[in-house]
Amino acid sequence: MSSRRIFARPARFAAIAPYLWMVLFFLVPFGFVLKIGLSQTAIAQPPYEPVFDLTAGWEALKTAFAALSIDNFKLLASDDIYVFAYVRSLTVALTATALLLVIGYPIAYGMARLPKRWQAVAMVLVIVPFWTSFLIRIYAWINILQHDGLLNQILLALHLVSQPVVWLSTDTAMYIGIVYSYLPFMILPLYATLAKMEPVLEEAASDLGAPPLQVFWLVTFPLSLPGVGAGVLLCFIPIVGEFVIPDLLAGSNSLMIGQTLWLEFFTNKDWPVASAAAIVLLVVLLVPLLLYERLQKRQLEQGR
Amino acid sequence: MRKLSRLSRFNIASLALGLAFLYLPILILVIYSFNASRLVTVWGGWSLRWYHEFFGDRAMIEAAWMSFRVAVSSASIATLLGTLAAVALSRGEGFRGRTLFSGMLYAPLVMPEVITGLSLLLLFVALNAERGFWTVTIAHTTLTMCFVAVVVQSRLGSLDRSLEEAAMDLGCNPVRAFVAVTLPLIAPAIVAGWMLAFTLSLDDLVIASFTTGPGSATLPIRIYSEVRLGVKPEINAICTLVIGLIAGVIVIASLASKLSSSQAESAAPL
Lengths: 304, 270
Description:
The complex is a heterodimer of chains A (about 300) and B (about 270). With about 300 residues, chain A is an all-alpha fold. Helix content of chain A is about 75%, strand content about 0%. A two-stranded antiparallel ribbon of chain A has the order 1-2. In chain A, α9 (about 170-195) runs antiparallel to α12. In chain A, about 40% of the residues are buried. In chain B, about 75% of the residues lie in helices and about 0% in strands. Chain B is mainly α and about 270 residues long. The chains are: A mainly alpha (about 300), B mainly alpha (about 270). The interface between A and B is large, with 102 and 99 residues.
């Protein structure tokens, strides 16, 4: 329609300000990460070399490029700490995402089967904890999991254990924290696809004699795959780079990549190595990121 | 016709357990913030002692004030920019660089915060910007405007476009049609976007740690450094206050959006 096209013209102008903002504060900074990831560590303020100086002309630019080095990347590949950190980040993220799916799916499924009026209430109930601070939610678990915390008190009172169990600084605590923090991100996309599903399909399958479990595996689950994909990506990608949860809840003997990056940056003040670590992390996440972008785009721009 | 009972016992159990899992830890935290005992785990009766302690802690109060200012300013800028971005994406049809634009807007939603924080810091260092209130505000705006854009865009996508077109056929210019018809209809989403931006900013530890300068710590930075040293009852009190503040914002905003959406619905049967 013509009025639609006329409307589009000023709408396009609306892009200018946010476009410039994102280029300056999201895209350009990656250039700096790349540049500093390729420079040498130096004991200076800021602690890296070479400084890129456009005013110094072409010759300076050439020497600057000559000074770029891949030493930081060689270090990352040769030092076991970093290799282990990447492997650990991926394993933790995979395990946690699988746990989230197994725990989140029944909850989302239960929500989708509630009467319509109650579905809205349930959705608000799932979203509200997401609004309370992330750090606070982790802190709440430290309260519960510490040596003489509530969980150990309950276990002792029930005579399930004879001595307090060490929960903090273990992988168990970390997984509890991750599942707790990311659960809404898994539930909501699952619920969105499950709620849209026609109940007639499940009814038809069961009328034709399929037992409930078979109905689930042959009808419900395959139809909910878009939601599964969205939930998995929404959880997996940020968990790989997670810093706060492993830092506060897991032990310090094996680090995730987010933690090593933080350590290099804040403790060792080695900005180039931290930047190189960030670049490798980004490369590792490139495929899931692109998948996620496509999904997001399809969801927001084509279907409803 | 036989109607299957849709809600099985398994459904009810998983819902109940799920909600308990989500709410119990927060509830316990709130209850313990009123504990009189210094030992976090021993119940010593109800008391407001730790709230007094917090209000006497100058450094904490300053950090809380800094966080609040950053959250209000970054949420406001982010709401403006995010809404503009959403309008361009959902009404602008095709324009040059659209793919890059939407890519830049969706990526920060899942990008690990350590990467966003580090890259912004390197930019600020290169620009020789003094780090503090403004650098954190800019960093938070960059992150949260993407959330605003997604929230507003999904509302725009579900709107009936013939309403705007009708306004234009009746002689409105596009800007007027937008302000008179579209804007009231997406107002609840804009409010929700602002709230989301506000809480995300209030919440953020990682990006703020990278982009702030000496002497201007935000509340999460303070809380984090205290929590690393162990559990302190005062932290429970602060956390309860933050939860209360956010709950208040949610209640007010949902009342506001209910009001405006019931008005909007009477104007536009969707």
